[in-house]
């Protein structure tokens, strides 16, 4: 049997080095080649000197994964990096689908902290109870399906976390989603947005659902729409951060 | 102004030291006191020598958090640890609710890899598309609400991830949930279960929804129910692990 290569799909977390898991760091340190979308490679490359980095632009996902398999097929250890988690709107699925074509390459998925978790931590604790994660991008999903999921999640009073709430071509999608949600939920529902968690330009805001549609989201924004139980907790007098928290109570007796 | 203490709510990931983030490790190293549920403290204490550990049994969550605030109120750095993420069925919400009573303590949430992510990575890539996370525990949530969420998530074709699928007192809850889901979904729907990820006794299995109800889940099990698109990908001839993957395609052209 020929020598096998190894391909790791690694979730690097929101962007700062410290938000990576020890396993992600050690895996990348052990690889000869690291493949990724240009923006993510730029976030981490200085921490992994001596590795060969291959970048591909957005929307070249299949090419990026095939490139990684070909490098790994030469007997090398190769990593494909994803922001957040490898398996939440990341590259893990595509890599595993392609793995059937590259039987001499072992594949391993290394999970990371996805934006739902890193964004929630910055806002407080919005995901303490049942939640639904929905991407508003209709590049690969028909809008009707997205709309159906928004309606069902709102109707069942899930906390809702929106990925890809907007892009240049989809500037009004968050507003469209809010209109749908407002058919089910009060305009006073507590919502939160985070931008660029752990990166330059980090931003957090808490607002009511009635105002969320006017928020200028971009592709680095993650949006949290509370359940009927979600509350805004005002910082106490002495609280060092001086900001309010978004909290969905789990129901413990205090 | 009196000297402030700091309270960190830290998600330690599924259990193995390597699955912690660098930030979680550095935060725990910087703390004098680490508070947690006995099982989680036992998972990590050998990695943080010299710290004072305080353990409380299950269902003593409020007492556990108050204990942590009181230690922090003395001007110390204190961590409350949670398995998985701090904010997904963890302690972050309760700590922030209680923080109003302890204005001299700063609170920070340090996120981690929740079971949905670590379990998904072990199974393949089940969460590549929109998903809903639902806890089957009715200790703090009426069953009617849980049932409504199961029905809505199934009807909108979310991938569904179940936390707390069973316990000694709720041995038949997973079977009850499967019966409900089968009203909406094919018995051939691809499902996966993981147990004790990254710990002794780790287990992974892929099976059809029609058989999932008979699976003996426990409190360390996480369950994944595929969408209509989720597939079982057979390992290729040379695959080192020799196991199939559970994958929800995102829709990329291959």
Task: Give an overview of the whole structure.
2 copies of one chain form a homodimer. Chain A is an alpha/beta fold and 254 residues long. The first copy, chain A, has helices at 22-30, 38-44, 61-73, 92-99, 115-123, 143-155, 173-181, 209-212; strands at residues 5-11, 33-37, 52-56, 77-82, 105-110, 124-125, 131-135, 159-163, 190-195, 203-208, 221-225, 231-233, 245-247. A 5-stranded parallel β-sheet of chain A has the order 3-2-4-1-5, with helices on both faces. In chain A, α2 (38-44) links the parallel β2 (33-37) and β3. β7 of chain A pairs antiparallel with β7 (131-135) of chain B.
List the helices and strands and how they pair.
Two copies of one chain form a homodimer.
Chain A: E1 5-11, H1 22-30, E2 33-37, H2 38-44, E3 52-56, H3 61-73, E4 77-82, H4 92-99, E5 105-110, H5 115-123, E6 124-125, E7 131-135, H6 143-155, E8 159-163, H7 173-181, E9 190-195, E10 203-208, H8 209-212, E11 221-225, E12 231-233, E13 245-247
Parallel strand pairs in A: 1-4, 1-5, 2-3, 2-4, 6-13, 7-8
Antiparallel strand pairs in A: 8-11, 9-10, 9-11, 12-13
Helix pairs in contact in A: 3-4
């Amino acid at each position: 049997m020929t020598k096998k290569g190894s391909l790791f799909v690694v979730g690097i977390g929101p962007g700062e080095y410290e938000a990576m898991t020890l396993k992600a760091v050690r895996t990348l340190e052990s690889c000869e080649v690291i493949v990724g979308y240009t923006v993510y490679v730029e976030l981490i490359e200085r921490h992994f000197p001596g590795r060969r980095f291959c970048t591909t632009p957005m929307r070249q996902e299949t090419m990026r994964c095939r490139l990684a398999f070909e490098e790994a097929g030469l007997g090398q250890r190769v990593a494909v990096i994803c922001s957040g988690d490898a398996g939440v709107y990341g590259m893990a699925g595509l890599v595993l689908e392609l793995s059937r074509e590259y039987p001499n390459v072992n594949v391993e998925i290394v999970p990371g902290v996805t934006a739902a978790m890193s964004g929630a931590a910055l806002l407080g604790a919005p995901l303490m109870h049942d939640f639904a994660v929905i991407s508003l991008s209709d590049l690969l999903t028909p809008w009707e399906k997205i709309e159906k999921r928004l309606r069902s999640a709102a109707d069942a009073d899930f906390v809702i976390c929106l990925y890809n709430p907007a892009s240049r071509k989809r500037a009004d999608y968050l507003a469209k989603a809010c209109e749908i949600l407002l058919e089910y939920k009060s305009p006073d529902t507590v919502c939160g947005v985070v931008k660029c968690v752990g990166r330059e330009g980090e931003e957090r805001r808490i607002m009511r659902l009635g105002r969320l549609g006017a928020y200028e989201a971009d592709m680095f924004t993650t949006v949290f729409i509370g359940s009927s139980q979600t509350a805004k907790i005002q910082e106490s007098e002495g609280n060092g951060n001086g900001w309010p928290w978004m909290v969905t109570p789990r129901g413990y007796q205090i």
